Amino acid sequence: MRINFNPQNNCGNKQQFGMRFIENESLTKYINSFHFRKQQENLKQTVNLIRDYVQKNPENKNLIVGALHPSKANYVKNGTYDEFFITPKKRIKKTNDRFERENVYMQFDGTDKFQGFYMNPDENPKNVAAWFINTLNYYKAKIAKKS
């Protein structure tokens, strides 16, 4: 008697090995906050492309992605500008760039380190997704060095 064992039969116990993409509700609120439908659609397509790539990754981790609070955002190196106001007592720096800050974060579940990312709503979704994946690979390498 021969028994064929196939764990992917319709037993309901199909195991999925791969990275899980967890979208924080703050990311949805952030995307819906844009007034122009084209910008919202670009960001939604970007998130879908990123989700598809991340879920094919063989690592068994949870990747949390959400909107980053502006106080934790760093400036993107290109395209930013600052306004300076000089008063008799001190020099005040006021930043005026609405879109030129990191606006999204990625974090592996169980770590306290996160990585900021600038998700441009006007850019081609494929380009933004590729930049996100490059940043994710940098983040994974940085986390690996720390541990």
Q: What would the keywords be for this entry?
A:
single chain; 147 residues; alpha+beta; two-stranded antiparallel ribbon; 19% strand
Strand residue content: 15-25%
Total DSSP E strands: 6
- Supply the helix-strand structural class: alpha+beta
How far apart are the termini?
A: 50 Å
Largest sheet: 4 strands, mixed
Integer-rounded radius of gyration: 20 Å
Helix content: 25-40%
Instruction: Describe the global form.
Output: globular
List the helices and strands and how they pair.
Blueprint: E1 20-23, H1 25-32, H2 37-56, E2 62-67, E3 82-86, E4 91-95, E5 104-108, E6 115-117, H3 125-146
Parallel strand pairs: 1-2
Antiparallel strand pairs: 2-5, 3-4, 5-6
Write up this protein:
This protein has 147 residues and is α+β, with helices and mostly antiparallel strands. Helices cover 34% and strands 19% of the residues. It contains 3 helices and 6 strands; from the N terminus they run βααβββββα. It has helices spanning 25-32, 37-56, 125-146; strands at 20-23, 62-67, 82-86, 91-95, 104-108, 115-117. Strands 1-2-5-6 form a 4-stranded mixed beta sheet. The chain has a two-stranded antiparallel ribbon with strand order 3-4. Strand 5 and strand 6 (115-117) form a beta hairpin. The longest helix is centred in the last third of the chain and has 22 residues, at 125-146. The chain is globular and about 55 Å long.
